[in-house]
Amino acid sequence: MYKVESDYYEKLIRSNYRRLGWAGTIVDKQGRSYPFRSRHIASGSGTITRSCAGSTDLELGSVYASEFDVGVYSEDLGITDRYVLYDGKIDINALIYISNGIDTWNDAAACTWEELSSSSWKAPDAYDKVPLGEYTIQEATRSAGIISIKAYDNMIKFEKSFRQNGSTKPPYKWLTDWCDKCGVELGMTRAEVEKLTNGNAQLSLTLVDDLETYRDALSHLAAALCSVAQIDRAGRLVLKPFGKPTVQQTIKASQRFSSSLADYITRFTGLYATHSAGGMTEYYKVTPDDGLIYNVGTNAFLQEADDSVRKRLCQNIINTLSLVRYTPFEAEIPCDPCLDPMDIIDFSGGHAAGEVSCITDVILKLNGSMSIKCVGENPMLNQAKSRYSKDISGLLATEEGVEGTSTFWLADAYLNDDLVIDTAAQVVAACEFKISTDKGRGDINFTTTYYMVDEGVVTVVIYVDDIEWYFLQDYKKNGHCITTVTTPFEVASLNDETHEVRIEIACLPNEAPVSDLTWQTSGLYTWGEMTSHTWGGA
User: Fold this and answer.
1) Residues 301, 319 contacting (CB under 8 angstroms)
2) Which fold has domain 384-531?
């Protein structure tokens, strides 16, 4: 959130009456400047869009560029040369006119005689200025005396082909090197970077072939630091961290035109991270593990060969991310040019009851209102299949010497005393994948630990693309137990379709067990038949 030093700004921006203006400068490729004010902006034009998340989910490592669309009167500004605005610069500032004195006759009408006698007319141009960013012009279209401009902030400067320079550095060094390469100033000190999650670690960069641009590399690094990347109002790169929310502003009912608040809180308690060299996706969690699971994918900075280092980095991320407690919302409010993505706000009055949220999207309309929102999934709907079916990239590891054969290594997310099974089938592991080889066959290896309240027959069923592929039955006594399932599998389609493996487990009560044998079959019974079957004596 931008901080205005003026003593008047906070009072003015929250008042029922405030006067806003706009001012900026266009600089063409030849260095010529064209200052503009509100009167030079075409009616109904002027929108600044800023974001740090997708349309539905929070995103670690987001690298979205802010966009400024505006139409200006070309003749009034004297922009006569054509083809000179592309790659030019444009900045924009909000002007908050100070009304600490008498500005208009309307102001005077509200004053008593004593107030008028002790007041003075204020200077007509007294205002607080709030910068709204610097942008590079990418499109300029002329029509009917108006030039329509589309411009983006300095994030687009990181769209350069990536070249690795070194393999292990602290995050601050990675950032300064990339900023130097791309001509963007870093807006953080070394101490500020080191305060981020994993900010003081030595991070190794691997999987360089997956990074096409410096923007890709920046996204991976920001995710490893549990942050998002943004360009600030001075055109500098900054990383804004997730973590425990601290409210920066309260938006009351009187300060909202409209609002809708979700009836749930978005929170994370689990993390998937794919270790490419090991050919497996690892799961990290906090206790209790009853929230959303974030999939960080195959992150180029989280591929440490040392298991202890890699696991520490990933656990640090979920430890920090688990502090997030945001209520998704959408709101239309009077324009407040100081609000930024990643600002923490709360709501009061009306149907609000102090909900805390993080702004993920800001749409500011010049001479209009402002739309803000926070996105996030609902943990209460995050049950069974939806909790475990995550798009895990890089999960398939091709076995050396066996063409087209791949192996899944699936590890469950439970300790011995976490998972208690009963007669109701429950999903204990699931993932989505794509076949990248010329044959759709492979192996599934799965091990799970659990606790049995009563003795009985444990049934594990594996589904491939919702088709029952394999199941195993094993009689277990009460107490801590472990079951391992290994089976080959095949999929029919080898194109870009997404396939799914899902594993369910249940316990069939057995009052008279007579053997400790494991019965294995494939396709003999359906799952419904198995759950209703009664096991007899020897």
Assistant:
1) no
2) Jelly Rolls (2.60.120)
